[in-house]
Design goal:
This protein is α+β, with helices and mostly antiparallel strands. The chain has seven helices and six strands, in the order ααααββαββαββα. The protein has a two-stranded antiparallel ribbon with strand order 1-2. α1 runs antiparallel to α2, α2 crosses α4 and α2 packs parallel to α6. The longest helix is centred in the N-terminal third of the chain and has 28 residues. The chain is globular. The termini are far apart.
């Protein structure tokens, strides 16, 4: 007699990303220093950039699960899916900026710039122009060309300037998007039930995010 039972399974990575994300967050928050006009320290820039990418990966994974639950095969783009199926969702502009920030990091958008050093050894940014081989129309639609930041959230799109504040902004906004997906698109995206270990304490992920 075979007592084995079969159950359905969907291969969603989703909240597995929270474990490295929290490790990176602890390391980022332990750093001191202030970015200059050109760059953050290599450590801060690396930790912040990695956190942003992981946050957006969590969101994309959650959207993939929502598409599956809603039996949506097309369009393939996560942003297109949210625009089409939740046209009244107030966070679409935020979501778009998060994707653009992710792209700036993952594709390492290149800028050609001039810099100067002040007598007290501070680095200042002069002229800066994005290399024509970097970015796309989505980037141009959300970036303030004067500040090289997203217009709504103020996330740095000059890659070496990405720092702690950018990462914290993305963590908070991505959590809001996950809550929306849980409440409106997929009961399997249970971010409200996620616990993480932060500074040797078990804490709810949303509780942690709200404290940042």
């Amino acid at each position: 007699m075979n007592d084995e039972k079969q159950f359905g399974y969907v291969s969603v990575i989703g909240f597995s990303y929270l474990y490295p994300l929290i490790d990176l967050l602890e390391s980022l928050l332990a750093l001191k220093g202030t970015p200059n006009e050109v760059q953050a320290s290599s450590k801060e820039n690396g930790y912040a950039s990695a956190i942003i990418v992981l946050c957006v990966l969590v969101v994309e994974s959650a959207i993939a699960r929502a598409k599956y639950d809603m039996k949506v095969d097309i369009p393939k783009s996560a942003l297109q899916f949210m625009e089409l199926h939740f046209p009244n969702y107030s966070g679409l502009s935020v979501l778009k900026e998060l994707f653009v920030a992710r792209d700036a990091i993952v594709h390492n958008h290149l800028w050609q710039a001039t810099i100067t050093w002040t007598p007290d050894r501070h680095m200042k940014l002069g002229a800066a122009e994005k290399w024509e081989g970097s970015g796309d129309a989505k980037l141009e639609s959300v970036m303030d060309p004067e500040t090289r930041k997203t217009r709504l959230l103020g996330i740095n799109l000059f890659p070496t300037r990405i720092a702690r504040d950018d990462a914290l902004t993305v963590i908070k906004k991505s959590a809001e998007i996950l809550q929306f997906i849980e409440e409106n698109a997929s009961r399997y995206v249970n971010v409200s039930n996620q616990d993480v270990e932060f500074r040797d304490q078990l804490v709810g992920y949303l509780e942690l995010v709200s404290s940042l």
